[in-house]
Amino acid sequence: MKKLLLCFSLLLFLQSCWYTNHDDDDDYPGMRSSYEPITQSRNDFEKSISILGERPVINSGKIYVKDDLIYLNELGEGFHIIDNSDPTQPNPVAFLKIPLATDLAIRNNILYVHHAVDLVAFSYSLNSNTLNIVHRERNVFPELRSPEGLEPSFYNVPENEIVIGYQQLN
Questions:
Q1: pLDDT in tens, 76-102
Q2: Is residue 17 within 8 Å of 141, Cβ to Cβ?
């Protein structure tokens, strides 16, 4: 009788480890968030890279140097381009607007920028102050999570939309 009771107790205990299809639910039933995503269509998002006139540095990040140019990251907004051919008087040239840009790498005069979820490769000409997008690799980086750590799938963000931020609900 003790063996039967022990086996039954063991089975009852192990029952909590059994897999059920409800373990995969991503619906978070009853869970609410105090944020909502701010989205932008993929088409508008890809057109958001542009060159603007120089502007003051407000919230600087990493610094990159290539030949006589300095690329100074403005956190989450883009890169200041500074002509450093005369190091005693650096000359701000332009601002490369790339929303949600966090990092830049340069190889063979091609600049590679982390643009939210994409990796964008482009060239920049100081003489004509123009940029030429060479390639865009889509969805290379993880999507922006909410301040609560929730992924955009929690908010049912459409596939052709990019989350560019979150706003707190009232």
A1: 899 999 999 999 999 999 999 999 998
A2: no
